[in-house]
Design a protein that fits this description.
Largest interface: A-B, 53 and 44 residues
Number of strands of chain A: 7
Distance between the termini of chain A: 69 Å
Largest sheet of chain A: 7 strands, mixed
Strand order of the largest sheet of chain A: 2-1-3-7-6-5-4
Order of helices and strands of chain A: EEHEHHEEEEHHHHHHHH
Oligomer: homopentamer
Number of helices of chain A: 11
Strand content of chain A: 15-25%
Structural class of chain A: alpha+beta
């Protein structure tokens, strides 16, 4: 699906009299220095993408990658254009889960093509923000690359904030006195953190290259801006490592607490058992059939025996309470 | 066994009037620029391989390696030819197991020799695909190297998809309420993932060299294609790391759940024991031989005692149910 | 909030007749070689920081970073100025916790701007120390950068000393014979050590650059001083690794001891149970209703039975004591 | 002990009329280009080694190392000679253990000196093989270095095959239903694998240097041969990592299975206990002394009670069997 | 405290007519090429060290480091002198503990100053050895640096030998059938190994620099000697890694054995309980009050019942023995 296609000149969107899919007509208008076309696609069909590829001379391998949408984040340079793949992340509250999408971006001297896959990776707001900021847009395709990267990486931060909340909840749960089986949640969270890691870490290399001005199609003056994105990625990477390591530690603590609880339970059970077993012994003694057992003839023998049982149990109770077994 | 041997010219298979094993005759026909011979061997005997080695001046160390078939993936350059070793992988559904084969590949200016070991590493379809794509075949031996690598690496993806399914099954099993002893399956799967890792990881270095055009016998224009293979390997490496780490986490969760279950069992057993032991105490009390025990003379003393037992047990039952011990 | 702003000339604070926020007036006085202005801000409002940025031509991205105060330690070079971010750490005794603040520092040829966030990151004493040491202050902004770094890194050492005490306490607790549930404390401490690590480790790279004289605005003669700071950071990093690894080992030992204690408890409980169950069997035997049981008719049958119970229990007691079960 | 000393010329052993320890006489005969002396020593005394050192101008530090025999594998270059240390490994079937020896090798332009320590590191067969292969021997001392390295590294492969068998045995044992305490064997095997690792890994660096022709005394044409040795070492390193990681996983599985077994045992024991405790309660009930208990007067009361006990126990048995507790 | 101060010329100690603390007088005598002064200090006061610093133009930062004695091993170059910090280690038999000291060493063209902290780091014997070896001493300050390093690193080897013995003891203890709580000892030993590691590992970098002749004040000819020290450090590092990893494995085995023992205990306890509980059931049965129980009237009913109990218990005993539960 073609979401939007437009020509930009001196930071302004220029109306061109053509259908959105008449890319060559659109590109033919980009005659001035700094003019460029931005085509936005969402889950394009093979045909749509082929049209775009033909109009902008995209490398077939990059086009194939853009169609499949199961790439690692990466930056590749073909003769006269860039191909950048980013993973988009968002947090689905209803399911407490992280979902991933993908943006593939082609950038040449006079064009940018963005190909989105998956829900939540919208670029409309990034385009609007750019269109309202003429100063940045005048920098050409590089500005769009920056805007997309910035928007995607901002999304990472939001997801990590949510995951931080989840880790805090697990932490509270693990150290609460309640019996909780946190291993399942920890497992799921570790899996999600691994997914975030796979989106964040490989993107640092492309951003580093942009920041150091090592990429042809991107203005070296844009370096500090990409360095800013890289800073965010580095900070995200730190957060990811920290969350993962906290989860591991929390898991170990969880296991240790299970053992401690089992120990406590065992001692409580044993103490409880003693409260029943010792009176049973007393009852057994007075159930013996000896002919000469003075207590049996007492008028108050029976209440005495019951009292003895209660007294012994009460004594054991106090003893266990004092020693912490109950 | 000689599977196939043919001469290729301008991307076309050329019929040469000779027996498959008359390699020198075949090679003598490769007179034009870009002509090359492709010999395919399957588990060759020492004699067969020696014939080939003599006809194409292969280095004895490489020939020895090609015969033994227990190599690590590697790329080696001898004076005027390349020697590439790849591990092939396939998943045997019947046994839920990964099996490995090996392809050794010699490439010179006018020849490619492929030596296969193990089931499942067939190259026939790769040859057919190539023969139907004249454009690629015109690139000479390098095209064959690419076609073989691409085909082998595609196979890795399939195997990883199957292993992903296995890991998902284990995950489900670990977190199911049923008592499952997953450690054996996790162990076996970890072993298989290690095997896949040993095939995938060392192959990245040769692909990187091809992608960067650092290898003589391979056309630098083929770089993007080998970069594509390298991308797949990198993605496979990510998947492998992820599966392995998921398995480790799942294993830990498995152990934690055993502890939780033991805890639950212990509490259930203790509660169950209380339901028997307390009535036993009551029976013991009324089994005492005191002369003066009023209840013993009651007309309904016996039903009363039975009722008392049932009532106490029922009370305990409710208590344990409420506190989650039963 | 503007904490202080002053002009320094030849290592002396020069009184300038202006309000603290008249930065441009102040800067205009810095006409001699080596003159510089030092502005100290604490949690500045966006407006205050914008004023400063305008007066000293600070890069907008750096200003944005200085405002937000959730940065990683880093050093960035903009055309004619440096931007350095440091994390400050201090130990709150009341809560046994580490808190973090942040100092952002801009340094140009004739100015230093320090922006503090969070309690405890005071720079007043650093400024006083510097003002009393004319020799150092004559080195210009670089001297202030050093003084700030030195002061902050000294703070790290203090925090690590406190954490060392905490780890020692945990160690004592883990290996004490008392039953302690140390996993919570170990978890919290690991979390704090991770926080310290995130402050200390990334700062080494900027200090290394200063030490090697790779930074424009800093006098290469200051190298040994920054190398001294770097040495402290390296030593801190060693201590952090060591504490973290000690905690992990202590945690494992904690878990092992829980198991050992459970084992001990189980044996004690079993031995205790035997002391009750065996006499119960004896009572049961003499409770049997056989017509011909000679003991039942004995005059001293009952005391004999009681004695037998005591004797058997005492025998078991000795046995268990000897074998270490009680 | 001097094992052998000989002069080689054009790949042939040349008889020189002197005693084995007359090294200088022997060396004096090595006048032609390519001539060299090979002296083989086994656990030499300090005096013997000093003689050799004097005759061949060996560096005192290298001589000291060769005498002590507790070196890491390493390659060192002294002005005009090489000093190479290798660890030899062999598997002692009787003890299921790996033993280590050491070979120190000095190589100059016209001599090779091999100093062996420990059983099993024999070089006699390597010498015989070399002497029967004139083509290789003509390459001078470098050929001997290769032959020794090749022979030693072949030994590593044999040892690893044996260790593989041991790991397979442990794997079978861990996952067998029998109760096995495998931790001791796993520990011992891990220790032996660590020993093999210490022999194999550091040797890769010297082999890499030889393979890349970076070492003066060794013919660059020998590169592929040393690369072959290096390949073996790399493959050995892979196997070592794999075995070690399998052992760790097996150990974890072992621990998990202990827990599972304990769980099973606990349930079995509890079920067994129920089969005894419940009849005891019934016996207790009919042991009560109520005056009005109709069953007591029944003619078949006693068999009825026994039957009741058996029936209840049988019912429990079926119940436990069904629920998997027995 | 000034331990010794002397002038060396051509490898000989030269008597100078001055007090030990008249450093400038002493230094003034070092007029010939190769002459140098060696001052040995032990826990110097700030004043003593200041005197020395003034006489030999030492850098204040290095002097501060030398005074405090809590440095990491490091090598620093100030304009015309070296500053080397080494950690000394020794094993205190009485406490089975490793203690650390520190040696700080300044080396200039005509002086060496050694500053020792902590017991056991004596240098007297190193000085004596050097003074008796004129050949080495003629190499000047570099020779002293080597002698000190060599002596300190020899000490590491001794400490590691003792730790090896400790690890062997723990290993024996872990796998002995006795119940041992080894976690405390393993913890302490891991802590000590970490301390040794912190002394050994950072020293490798300075030694590497000396070995490669990258340090101005040290004769490049001394390279092989420092390489020898570096070899020792590398070997020590291997041993440290190995000991640490053995301890970890031993700890895991320790935990596994606790579980196995608990399992064994539980089975033994259960079997023991059965031997008491089953006879109790029999006693309960013959304690029932049925009017028609033929056995009760038997002349030998009582002995029969006792025999039955014994027989059943004996049967169970045999059963448990056979199945390994007792």
């Amino acid at each position: 699906m073609i979401v939007d296609s437009a020509l930009y000149r001196k930071g302004q969107r220029v109306e061109v009299d053509c259908f959105p899919h008449e890319f060559e007509k659109l590109r033919a208008e980009a005659t001035d220095e700094g003019d460029f076309v931005w085509v936005g696609l969402y889950k394009p069909s093979e045909g749509e993408l082929d049209d775009v590829a033909k109009s902008f001379d995209l490398h077939p391998l990059a086009v194939e990658d853009a169609l499949k949408a199961h790439q690692r984040p990466k930056l590749e340079r073909y003769h006269d254009s860039l191909f950048l793949t980013l993973k988009t992340l968002w947090y689905v509250d209803a399911e407490d889960a992280v979902e991933t999408g993908e943006i593939n971006l082609f950038a040449g001297q006079d064009f940018v093509i963005t190909v989105r896959h998956g829900r939540g990776s919208e670029l409309h707001s990034a385009r609007s923000r750019l269109e309202s900021d003429t100063a940045i847009l005048t920098h050409g395709p590089g500005a769009v690359v920056y805007a997309v990267c910035d928007s995607v990486v901002d999304g990472y931060g939001d997801v990590l904030d949510e995951l931080q909340v989840d880790v805090d909840e697990i932490e509270t749960s693990v150290f609460s006195p309640a019996r909780t089986d946190d291993s399942n949640r920890i497992y799921v969270l570790k899996r999600e953190i691994a997914e975030v890691r796979r989106a964040v870490l490989p993107l640092r290399e492309p951003m580093r290259k942009f920041a150091e001005g090592m990429v042809d199609r991107v203005d070296p003056d844009a370096g500090p801006f990409f360095r800013d994105v890289l800073d965010h990625l580095n900070q995200d990477a730190d957060v990811i490592d920290n969350l993962d390591s906290l989860l591991s530690t929390a898991f170990n603590a969880h296991v240790a607490r299970i053992s401690v609880q089992q120990n406590d339970d065992m001692r409580k059970i044993s103490a409880g058992a003693a409260l029943v077993v010792v009176p049973t012994l007393i009852a057994g003694i007075y159930g013996m059939n000896f002919e000469h057992m003075p207590e049996l003839g007492w008028q108050l023998g029976y209440p005495f025996a019951l009292l003895l049982m209660v007294a012994v149990s009460a004594g054991l109770w106090v003893l266990f309470k004092k020693s912490g077994w109950l």
